[in-house]
Amino acid sequence: MIKSKLLSLFLLSSPLDNMERNPEESPNKRVKRAKLSPRVEELAVIKIKVGDDENNTIEVLTDPMNNCYEYNIGNSLWGASYELIEHIKGLKKTNFKGNTIVEIGAGAGAVGMYLWALGAEVTLTDIEYTLPFMNKNVEHNLKQRTSDKRATNGLEASCIDWMKHETAKAIREAKGKPFDLIVGAEVSYDSDLHEDLLETILILMGPSEKDAQEIRDRKPDPAAIVLLAVPQRDDDEDIVSRAKERGFATRLCHIYPASPEHSSSIAIYELKPPQQKVAIGNIFDSIKATV
Protein backbone atom coordinates (compact mmCIF):
# COMPACT_ATOMS: atom_id res chain seq x y z
CA MET A 1 0.00 0.00 0.00
CA ILE A 2 1.09 3.53 -0.59
CA LYS A 3 0.75 5.28 2.74
CA SER A 4 1.53 8.77 3.96
CA LYS A 5 0.22 11.41 6.32
CA LEU A 6 -0.31 13.59 3.28
CA LEU A 7 -2.84 11.15 1.89
CA SER A 8 -4.82 11.19 5.13
CA LEU A 9 -5.04 14.95 4.93
CA PHE A 10 -6.24 15.25 1.38
CA LEU A 11 -7.85 11.97 0.28
CA LEU A 12 -11.56 11.58 0.88
CA SER A 13 -12.90 8.07 1.48
CA SER A 14 -15.32 8.48 -1.42
CA PRO A 15 -15.72 11.59 -3.55
CA LEU A 16 -19.33 10.61 -4.14
CA ASP A 17 -20.09 11.20 -0.45
CA ASN A 18 -18.70 14.72 -0.45
CA MET A 19 -20.28 16.39 -3.45
CA GLU A 20 -22.51 19.41 -3.01
CA ARG A 21 -25.09 19.16 -5.77
CA ASN A 22 -27.44 21.75 -7.16
CA PRO A 23 -30.03 19.72 -9.11
CA GLU A 24 -31.14 22.77 -11.08
CA GLU A 25 -27.67 23.51 -12.38
CA SER A 26 -26.24 21.51 -15.26
CA PRO A 27 -22.68 20.10 -15.12
CA ASN A 28 -21.63 22.27 -18.05
CA LYS A 29 -22.88 25.40 -16.30
CA ARG A 30 -21.07 24.42 -13.15
CA VAL A 31 -17.80 24.13 -15.06
CA LYS A 32 -18.27 27.59 -16.50
CA ARG A 33 -18.52 28.97 -12.96
CA ALA A 34 -15.38 27.17 -11.83
CA LYS A 35 -11.96 28.76 -11.62
CA LEU A 36 -10.36 27.30 -14.71
CA SER A 37 -6.85 28.54 -13.87
CA PRO A 38 -6.37 28.40 -10.09
CA ARG A 39 -2.90 28.75 -8.65
CA VAL A 40 -1.26 25.44 -7.75
CA GLU A 41 -0.97 26.59 -4.14
CA GLU A 42 -4.77 26.67 -3.97
CA LEU A 43 -4.87 22.93 -4.65
CA ALA A 44 -3.73 19.94 -2.63
CA VAL A 45 -0.64 18.26 -4.09
CA ILE A 46 -0.04 14.54 -3.63
CA LYS A 47 3.39 13.29 -4.64
CA ILE A 48 3.75 9.68 -5.78
CA LYS A 49 7.17 8.13 -6.27
CA VAL A 50 7.61 6.38 -9.61
CA GLY A 51 9.33 3.00 -9.33
CA ASP A 52 12.42 2.94 -7.14
CA ASP A 53 13.77 6.29 -8.29
CA GLU A 54 13.52 8.76 -5.41
CA ASN A 55 13.91 11.65 -7.85
CA ASN A 56 11.17 10.47 -10.17
CA THR A 57 7.74 11.54 -8.95
CA ILE A 58 4.41 12.66 -10.29
CA GLU A 59 2.43 15.38 -8.57
CA VAL A 60 -1.31 14.83 -8.51
CA LEU A 61 -3.28 18.02 -7.97
CA THR A 62 -6.55 17.50 -6.12
CA ASP A 63 -9.42 19.74 -5.09
CA PRO A 64 -11.33 17.49 -2.65
CA MET A 65 -13.45 20.28 -1.17
CA ASN A 66 -14.34 21.71 -4.61
CA ASN A 67 -12.83 25.08 -3.74
CA CYS A 68 -11.49 25.72 -7.22
CA TYR A 69 -13.44 23.36 -9.47
CA GLU A 70 -17.05 23.01 -8.40
CA TYR A 71 -18.97 19.73 -8.40
CA ASN A 72 -16.60 17.31 -9.99
CA ILE A 73 -16.14 13.76 -8.74
CA GLY A 74 -12.79 13.81 -10.53
CA ASN A 75 -11.50 16.53 -8.20
CA SER A 76 -10.43 13.93 -5.63
CA LEU A 77 -7.99 11.10 -5.99
CA TRP A 78 -10.05 7.95 -5.61
CA GLY A 79 -8.57 5.38 -3.24
CA ALA A 80 -8.49 2.55 -5.80
CA SER A 81 -5.95 4.53 -7.83
CA TYR A 82 -3.33 3.77 -5.19
CA GLU A 83 -3.98 0.03 -5.32
CA LEU A 84 -3.76 0.00 -9.12
CA ILE A 85 -0.50 1.94 -9.01
CA GLU A 86 0.79 -0.47 -6.38
CA HIS A 87 -0.09 -3.39 -8.65
CA ILE A 88 1.69 -1.78 -11.60
CA LYS A 89 4.77 -1.28 -9.41
CA GLY A 90 4.84 -5.03 -8.80
CA LEU A 91 4.79 -5.96 -12.50
CA LYS A 92 7.95 -7.35 -14.08
CA LYS A 93 7.60 -4.76 -16.81
CA THR A 94 9.18 -1.51 -15.60
CA ASN A 95 9.70 0.36 -18.87
CA PHE A 96 6.60 1.23 -20.85
CA LYS A 97 8.41 3.22 -23.53
CA GLY A 98 6.69 2.75 -26.87
CA ASN A 99 3.42 1.55 -25.34
CA THR A 100 0.18 3.44 -25.93
CA ILE A 101 -2.06 3.57 -22.88
CA VAL A 102 -5.43 5.11 -22.15
CA GLU A 103 -6.89 5.72 -18.70
CA ILE A 104 -10.68 5.65 -18.67
CA GLY A 105 -12.61 7.63 -16.08
CA ALA A 106 -9.27 9.20 -15.21
CA GLY A 107 -10.39 12.15 -13.06
CA ALA A 108 -7.12 13.61 -11.79
CA GLY A 109 -5.24 11.06 -13.92
CA ALA A 110 -2.90 9.56 -11.31
CA VAL A 111 -2.63 6.05 -12.79
CA GLY A 112 -2.13 7.29 -16.34
CA MET A 113 0.48 9.85 -15.27
CA TYR A 114 2.32 7.16 -13.32
CA LEU A 115 2.58 5.03 -16.47
CA TRP A 116 3.59 8.10 -18.47
CA ALA A 117 6.45 8.65 -16.02
CA LEU A 118 7.53 5.08 -16.84
CA GLY A 119 7.85 6.01 -20.51
CA ALA A 120 4.41 5.30 -21.97
CA GLU A 121 2.45 7.47 -24.36
CA VAL A 122 -0.69 8.17 -22.34
CA THR A 123 -4.13 9.59 -23.05
CA LEU A 124 -6.17 10.50 -19.97
CA THR A 125 -9.90 10.42 -20.63
CA ASP A 126 -13.08 11.35 -18.81
CA ILE A 127 -16.34 13.16 -19.48
CA GLU A 128 -16.23 16.70 -20.80
CA TYR A 129 -16.73 18.71 -17.63
CA THR A 130 -13.72 17.03 -15.97
CA LEU A 131 -11.32 18.24 -18.67
CA PRO A 132 -10.37 21.62 -17.16
CA PHE A 133 -9.09 19.95 -13.99
CA MET A 134 -7.51 17.02 -15.82
CA ASN A 135 -5.71 19.44 -18.15
CA LYS A 136 -4.46 21.33 -15.09
CA ASN A 137 -2.79 18.12 -13.89
CA VAL A 138 -1.33 17.46 -17.35
CA GLU A 139 0.08 20.99 -17.64
CA HIS A 140 1.51 20.90 -14.12
CA ASN A 141 3.32 17.59 -14.61
CA LEU A 142 4.60 18.52 -18.06
CA LYS A 143 6.03 21.66 -16.48
CA GLN A 144 7.63 19.63 -13.69
CA ARG A 145 9.25 17.36 -16.24
CA THR A 146 10.63 20.34 -18.12
CA SER A 147 12.22 21.67 -14.96
CA ASP A 148 14.03 18.41 -14.20
CA LYS A 149 14.90 17.76 -17.88
CA ARG A 150 12.85 14.58 -18.14
CA ALA A 151 10.76 13.66 -21.20
CA THR A 152 7.91 16.11 -21.66
CA ASN A 153 5.84 14.55 -24.43
CA GLY A 154 3.31 11.75 -24.67
CA LEU A 155 0.72 12.97 -22.14
CA GLU A 156 -2.65 14.42 -23.11
CA ALA A 157 -6.23 14.69 -21.86
CA SER A 158 -9.30 14.03 -24.00
CA CYS A 159 -13.03 13.52 -23.64
CA ILE A 160 -14.56 10.06 -23.63
CA ASP A 161 -18.16 9.73 -22.52
CA TRP A 162 -18.98 6.03 -22.26
CA MET A 163 -22.59 6.72 -23.23
CA LYS A 164 -21.50 8.54 -26.39
CA HIS A 165 -19.53 5.95 -28.32
CA GLU A 166 -18.50 8.45 -30.96
CA THR A 167 -16.17 10.06 -28.39
CA ALA A 168 -14.25 6.79 -28.00
CA LYS A 169 -14.25 6.28 -31.76
CA ALA A 170 -12.67 9.71 -32.22
CA ILE A 171 -9.85 8.89 -29.77
CA ARG A 172 -9.25 5.50 -31.41
CA GLU A 173 -9.16 7.02 -34.90
CA ALA A 174 -6.80 9.80 -33.80
CA LYS A 175 -4.41 7.25 -32.27
CA GLY A 176 -4.25 5.25 -35.51
CA LYS A 177 -3.89 1.87 -33.81
CA PRO A 178 -5.41 -0.02 -30.87
CA PHE A 179 -4.18 0.95 -27.42
CA ASP A 180 -1.80 -1.54 -25.81
CA LEU A 181 -3.16 -1.10 -22.31
CA ILE A 182 -6.36 0.32 -20.85
CA VAL A 183 -6.46 1.16 -17.15
CA GLY A 184 -9.31 2.22 -14.91
CA ALA A 185 -9.56 2.73 -11.14
CA GLU A 186 -12.99 2.52 -9.54
CA VAL A 187 -14.79 3.07 -12.83
CA SER A 188 -17.40 0.39 -12.05
CA TYR A 189 -19.39 2.42 -9.50
CA ASP A 190 -22.61 2.48 -11.57
CA SER A 191 -23.83 -0.90 -12.87
CA ASP A 192 -26.14 0.86 -15.32
CA LEU A 193 -23.02 2.04 -17.17
CA HIS A 194 -21.22 -1.30 -17.34
CA GLU A 195 -22.37 -2.24 -20.84
CA ASP A 196 -21.37 1.17 -22.20
CA LEU A 197 -18.04 0.95 -20.39
CA LEU A 198 -17.26 -2.44 -21.95
CA GLU A 199 -18.35 -1.13 -25.34
CA THR A 200 -15.93 1.77 -24.91
CA ILE A 201 -13.10 -0.62 -24.04
CA LEU A 202 -13.76 -2.71 -27.14
CA ILE A 203 -13.71 0.40 -29.31
CA LEU A 204 -10.34 1.47 -27.92
CA MET A 205 -8.71 -1.94 -28.40
CA GLY A 206 -10.44 -2.76 -31.68
CA PRO A 207 -9.92 -1.94 -35.37
CA SER A 208 -10.38 1.52 -36.77
CA GLU A 209 -13.68 2.31 -38.44
CA LYS A 210 -11.98 2.24 -41.85
CA ASP A 211 -10.47 -1.19 -41.18
CA ALA A 212 -13.76 -2.49 -39.84
CA GLN A 213 -15.50 -1.56 -43.07
CA GLU A 214 -12.90 -3.49 -45.04
CA ILE A 215 -12.59 -6.47 -42.69
CA ARG A 216 -15.96 -7.19 -41.15
CA ASP A 217 -14.83 -9.90 -38.72
CA ARG A 218 -11.69 -8.09 -37.51
CA LYS A 219 -11.11 -8.94 -33.84
CA PRO A 220 -9.82 -6.70 -31.06
CA ASP A 221 -6.04 -6.68 -30.70
CA PRO A 222 -5.22 -9.94 -28.84
CA ALA A 223 -2.18 -8.31 -27.24
CA ALA A 224 -4.24 -5.55 -25.61
CA ILE A 225 -4.86 -5.77 -21.88
CA VAL A 226 -7.24 -4.05 -19.49
CA LEU A 227 -6.35 -3.51 -15.83
CA LEU A 228 -9.21 -2.51 -13.54
CA ALA A 229 -9.18 -1.71 -9.83
CA VAL A 230 -12.63 -2.81 -8.68
CA PRO A 231 -14.00 -2.24 -5.14
CA GLN A 232 -15.49 -5.43 -3.75
CA ARG A 233 -19.06 -4.20 -3.72
CA ASP A 234 -21.92 -5.97 -5.49
CA ASP A 235 -22.62 -3.27 -8.09
CA ASP A 236 -18.93 -2.81 -8.85
CA GLU A 237 -18.09 -6.48 -9.23
CA ASP A 238 -20.93 -6.92 -11.71
CA ILE A 239 -18.53 -5.46 -14.31
CA VAL A 240 -16.53 -8.73 -14.22
CA SER A 241 -19.61 -10.87 -14.86
CA ARG A 242 -20.64 -8.58 -17.70
CA ALA A 243 -17.15 -8.78 -19.20
CA LYS A 244 -17.24 -12.59 -19.17
CA GLU A 245 -20.60 -12.50 -20.92
CA ARG A 246 -19.06 -10.33 -23.63
CA GLY A 247 -16.29 -12.89 -24.20
CA PHE A 248 -13.46 -11.29 -22.23
CA ALA A 249 -10.98 -13.53 -20.45
CA THR A 250 -10.77 -12.31 -16.84
CA ARG A 251 -8.21 -12.96 -14.14
CA LEU A 252 -8.20 -11.86 -10.53
CA CYS A 253 -4.66 -10.65 -9.92
CA HIS A 254 -4.74 -9.44 -6.33
CA ILE A 255 -7.02 -8.25 -3.55
CA TYR A 256 -5.94 -5.31 -1.42
CA PRO A 257 -7.66 -5.10 1.97
CA ALA A 258 -9.67 -2.10 3.09
CA SER A 259 -7.52 0.76 4.35
CA PRO A 260 -7.79 4.32 5.69
CA GLU A 261 -7.73 5.45 2.07
CA HIS A 262 -10.56 3.16 1.03
CA SER A 263 -13.40 1.61 3.01
CA SER A 264 -13.74 -1.40 0.67
CA SER A 265 -11.20 -4.00 -0.31
CA ILE A 266 -9.96 -3.51 -3.87
CA ALA A 267 -9.65 -6.30 -6.42
CA ILE A 268 -7.29 -5.92 -9.37
CA TYR A 269 -8.60 -7.65 -12.48
CA GLU A 270 -6.89 -8.28 -15.78
CA LEU A 271 -9.18 -8.46 -18.80
CA LYS A 272 -8.18 -9.68 -22.24
CA PRO A 273 -10.34 -9.10 -25.30
CA PRO A 274 -12.42 -11.83 -26.91
CA GLN A 275 -10.25 -14.12 -29.01
CA GLN A 276 -13.04 -15.28 -31.28
CA LYS A 277 -15.44 -13.63 -33.67
CA VAL A 278 -17.72 -11.88 -31.22
CA ALA A 279 -20.50 -9.38 -31.41
CA ILE A 280 -19.07 -6.02 -30.43
CA GLY A 281 -22.38 -4.26 -30.21
CA ASN A 282 -22.65 -1.04 -32.11
CA ILE A 283 -18.98 -0.08 -32.06
CA PHE A 284 -19.24 0.52 -35.79
CA ASP A 285 -22.50 0.48 -37.70
CA SER A 286 -20.85 -1.67 -40.39
CA ILE A 287 -20.11 -4.58 -38.03
CA LYS A 288 -22.72 -7.27 -37.59
CA ALA A 289 -22.84 -9.93 -34.91
CA THR A 290 -21.01 -13.08 -35.90
CA VAL A 291 -22.03 -15.23 -32.93
Q: How would a crystallographer describe the biggest sheet?
A: 7 strands, mixed
Q: Which strand order does the major sheet show?
A: 5-4-3-6-7-9-8
- Taken in chain order, the helices and strands follow as HHEEHEHEHEHEHHEHEE
Structural class: alpha/beta
Distance between the termini: 42 Å
CATH classification, class level of the domain at 78-272: Alpha Beta
Total strand segments: 9
Can you tell me the CATH superfamily of the domain at 78-272?
Answer: Vaccinia Virus protein VP39
Secondary-structure topology with pairs:
Blueprint: H1 5-10, H2 27-33, E1 44-50, E2 53-62, H3 80-89, E3 100-103, H4 110-117, E4 121-126, H5 131-147, E5 155-159, H6 165-175, E6 181-185, H7 194-205, H8 209-214, E7 225-231, H9 234-245, E8 249-256, E9 266-272
Parallel strand pairs: 3-4, 3-6, 4-5, 6-7
Antiparallel strand pairs: 1-2, 7-9, 8-9
Helix pairs in contact: 3-4, 6-7
Question: Care to give the gist of this entry?
Answer:
The protein has 291 residues and is α/β, with parallel strands linked by helices. It contains nine helices and nine strands. The chain has helices at residues 5-10, 27-33, 80-89, 110-117, 131-147, 165-175, 194-205, 209-214, 234-245; strands at residues 44-50, 53-62, 100-103, 121-126, 155-159, 181-185, 225-231, 249-256, 266-272.
Explain what the structure shows:
The protein is of the alpha/beta class and 291 residues long. The chain has a domain at 78-272: Rossmann fold. The chain has helices at 5-10, 27-33, 80-89, 110-117, 131-147, 165-175, 194-205, 209-214, 234-245, and strands spanning 44-50, 53-62, 100-103, 121-126, 155-159, 181-185, 225-231, 249-256, 266-272. The chain has a 7-stranded mixed sheet, with helices on both faces. The chain has a two-stranded antiparallel sheet with strand order 1-2. Helix 3 runs parallel beside helix 4 (110-117) and helix 6 runs parallel beside helix 7 (194-205). Residues 1-36, 214-218 and 276-291 have low confidence and may be disordered.
